[in-house]
Amino acid sequence: MNPTIESALDQLRRQWGIDLQRAHAVVALLASDKPVPMADLVVKTGLSRSSIEGIVQSLRPFVQELPAGFTIEGSHRSAVSGVLGAAQPSPLTRANESAILSKLDEVIADRPPPIWQLDHVPATVETVWRRATYMYNTFNLHDATVLMVGDQDMTSIALALISPSTDVVVVDIDERILSYIHAARHRLALRIRPVFSDLRITLPRSLQQRCHLVFTDPPYTEEGLRLFLQRAVQALVQGEPTRVLLAYGFGDRQLARAYKAQSVIHSLRFVQHAMLPDFHHFEGAQAIGSRSDLYVLEPTRRAIAASRNVSGNRAIYSKGHEGPNASIRSLPAELLDVLPEPMDWLLVGNPLPEIAAKQRVPINTFIRTRFVNTRARRIVVNVYPGFDSYLLRLCLHANADYITLIGTWRAVVKLRGQPHGELVRLKYREVCYRQAGNAGVLALAPREASDMDAADSVMIRLLRKPAARLGSAWREALIRHFRTQDVVITKNEARGVIADTEIGSIHGESYLVELPESMLFRLRDAVARTIELLEGVSTKRASVDQRHS
After folding, report:
1. Residue 85 has what pLDDT?
2. 346: which residues sit within 8 A by CB, 6+ positions away?
3. pTM (2 d.p.)
């Protein structure tokens, strides 16, 4: 089959990715009325001769090389113009800009207040707008995936307002931010997916090698910078042009700090394309002059290997109980008496003082596939003192008959109340709770199955497949539930009703541990809704079958 000009341009799109606008500048010159010499193509686009030769080669059946230069054959120019016009981002008119800025002002005015322990320093509205427009005008973001590694500033919302054809994803540890972004997504009909993760533990599986552009404003420590850049590399697709946009600053007399930061960038094997000084302005951050620079980075092939070994046990924040000067908090010894006997249980998380479990696995290892499908009779989860945000998620994630949860007493108490306790009681009943000092222990045993309704039954089936994507686990749970009632539900019918729910449409490709708490708390109601919809489908099908019989 002979190639078409459209297929050749589509191949060019895949080759150039987010840099497509630079390639299209060459194509636009080739589609002009007069042939263009190679030297002029180089001068007018700024691309190297070898890059332009590669573009010409991709379009070779449709490009003529004449004595005066290169040109696309006249019969194909209208098709080229159509493709270029469709790919060109719509310019922001003053009216559009004014309307978007009005919405952005409202969003930023009500954003959650900063948490100083997480090194939050709010960016100004002008800075958030400048970030979004820079991304929109510099890169080809049509159907691209852009990841915000942390987003207290709401840059994700600004970009989604400007570029509705872009998949915007936010990964953050702060549940308030994730909940706020979700509410803004719903209110403004934006294309944003908020995802939970403590990056010290892992980058969410659904984001690994999925993103084309990453923006991050990391904690202002050497370890925080290293961690966030490593996670950024892990998120980027391979084999295509990608970028990492980094916000980082230092005081005018802090040359040693600047050198350390740039050494981290170099050690992770990035190429620095640009550094735009004083790009970001903040409401605070007086130690760095209330502003920071924008680094435009591209990972080399060696960046993947350099980002593979991540140390999540080091202090990444500059202040608070997770800072480098924080005192080490040990688990009170009296709480260890609650642990089950004999010591044949699986320990997940931090080691326990003076106790050697039969097997211990880190949290990030436990939530990978090979462990979640192994049913352990007894599991002890210890997230004390620094990983409380995973306590509920690991409780839901574990396939165990008996589970003992150890964390700060505030985190453990949450699991006993609403809405956290409603999710816990889907699987377990409380056996024992004890508190000492700043720590707490909650021991759980299997729930009695006799009082389950349909939604509980489907939820239990769904929770037994934490290694599967949420949409897949949900679909199979629905099919199995209706099978027990001798009702056949097809995969497409199950997929359809799941996609009709808000959680299913946003997080169908996510994993359970990645869902923000605000989504976890609504999951059972969404499951109940899909059961109701499928009951309607089966009733309608039975009525049709009866008429035809």
Report:
1. 66
2. 357, 358, 359, 360, 361, 376, 378, 379, 380, 400
3. 0.92
Closest to 216 measured CA to CA, from 281, 285, 151: 151
Task: Tell me which DSSP letter residue 517 carries.
Answer: H
> Quick one: pLDDT at residue 1?
40
Helix axis angle, 255-267 relative to 222-235, nearest 10°?
A: 30
pLDDT averaged over every residue in the chain: 89
Query: From the centroid of its chain, how far is CA 381?
Result: 25
Instruction: Note whether 367 and 397 are within 8 A (CB).
Output: yes
Q: Which residues of 387-423 are buried (b: 16+ CB within 10 A; e: fewer)?
A: bbbbbbbbbbbbbbebbbbbbbbebbbbbeeeebeeb
**Residue among 358, 366, 368, 369 at smallest CA distance from 391:** 366
Residue range 3-34, pLDDT digits in tens: 788 888 888 888 999 999 999 999 999 988 89
Once rounded to an integer, what is the mean pLDDT over residues 184-191? 96
DSSP assigned state of 236: B
Q: Which among 237, 206, 229 is positioned nearest to 308, based on CA atoms?
A: 229
| C-alpha torsion angle, residues 316, 318, 323, 326 (rounded to 10) | 160
419: number of CA atoms within 13 Å, CB side? Answer: 9
Closest by CA position to 206, among listed 519, 521, 523, 515: 515
416-456 pLDDT, tens digit each? 999 999 999 999 999 999 998 899 999 999 987 777 899 99
**Measured between alpha carbons, how far is 430 from 389 in angstroms, rounded to an integer?**
20
Return d(Cα 258, Cα 246) in angstroms, integer: 14
| Pairing label, strands 192-196, 167-172 | parallel
CA atoms within 13 A on the CB side of 187: 11
Q: Tokens representing 78? A: 């209208």
Give me the count of residues in the chain: 549
